[in-house]
Amino acid sequence: MRLFSLFVAASVPVVKVLLLTALGSLLALDHINVLSPDARKHLNTIVFYVFSPALITSNLAKTITYESIIKLWFMPLNILISFVVGSLLGWVVNLLTRPPPHLRGLVVGCCAAGNLGAIPIIIVPAVCKEKGSPFGDRYACNSYGLTYVSLSMAIGAIYLWVYVYNVLRLSIQAIPEELSVSSIGKCTMEPNIAEQGSLIEARHSPIRFVRSEDHADALPSTRFDEEPELGFTYKIKQHAMELSGKLNLKKLFAPSTNGAIVGFIVGLIPPLRKSMIGDSAPFHVIEDTIILLGDGAIPLLTLIIGANLLKGLRSSGTPKFMVFGIIVARYIVLPSVGIGVVKAAVHLNLVQADPLYQFVLLLQFALPPAMNIGTMMQLFGKGESECSVIMLCCYVCALVSLSLWCTFFMWLVG
């Protein structure tokens, strides 16, 4: 009876996600066409730049304190472990299924990055409201749960854009080189080579011009005195630009990341917190406005997920064994590893004996792939149909796996 009540408590949030996802798919049908591709694109932009940062900022600003930071220090490490283990599993899936080269990064990304945003922020508060929940008072559970989930969302966004984005970029950028050698020929690479040559020439021409004996008489003598300083500063700028290009710092400081930074600043600086957080704060209208914006993120995100999954029904040609390998990695192997990681952390006193906190840590290992991976593939213009099939299969399987794993996790921590 106890196990059945836990199963009901775990299944209700998943059913909510299912209903919203089904509504999104329905609205994207051709004869309804409310969530057309253009509409999804614009909604995605609004959610990315407005709603998601507002949701993260409001939740972190309300709940983050110095005490909670000390308590939650293990969460970034836990998410990092899930990304590392998932990447290793993705490498194994690539080794066994041998997908096309441009899909290898997609496999690694889907195995490594879980949906640490929309899914937990729906599941955790909904679990707190259920009668069979083992997490005590529903209001305290909801408040602490939002803290855990908001921090998880912020950290997940940073890891996603720092690591997975660059894995996909490097995987896709390798395609032109292979195609140019095999079938396209030399002409395909000529523009890039020309651009690189002109760039290198433009970068290094001042140094060569100064050092040239032919033009030494025409140059002022002060140019030779300034050469070492210019060369040193130039090298620093060059290395900084190369590092920025490789890491893509613009994506690192995505709106969700910036929202997390603002939330941390407001929550951890007492004067800001007292002036903005709480009904008695003089500027509480700012908090109310941000909360109002953030509340729209969850339903819109889930509707977009449902609309994007519809593309998977219309796609074909995706390797089935590759999809099966991702499902096994994400829903069987990774949660099993997560249980060992969290239990070891509790045994070593790295994690406090808070059942809700342990539940969120475990849940991070059992989530479906991050939907932002589909957004990244759209940005690169490669593998969009294959990504849609993967997301469709993974999210359909998540309806069963999430219910079962959430039930087991609640029994384990309770």
Automatic annotation (TrEMBL):
GO BP terms: auxin-activated signaling pathway; endoplasmic reticulum to cytosol auxin transport
Its biological purpose: Involved in cellular auxin homeostasis by regulating auxin metabolism. Regulates intracellular auxin accumulation at the endoplasmic reticulum and thus auxin availability for nuclear auxin signaling.
Main location class: endoplasmic reticulum
Location in the cell: Endoplasmic reticulum membrane
Signal peptide per UniProt: none
Pfam family, one: Mem_trans
Membrane topology: Multi-pass membrane protein
Protein name as it appears in the record: Uncharacterized protein
Family to which the UniProt record says this protein belongs: Belongs to the auxin efflux carrier (TC 2.A.69.2) family.
Entry's transmembrane regions: 6-29, 73-93, 105-127, 147-168, 252-270, 290-310, 322-344, 356-377, 389-413
Cellular component GO terms, alphabetical: endoplasmic reticulum membrane
Species whose genome carries this gene: Daucus carota subsp. sativus
Source domain of life: Eukaryota
Key words of the record: Auxin signaling pathway, Endoplasmic reticulum, Membrane, Transmembrane, Transmembrane helix, Transport
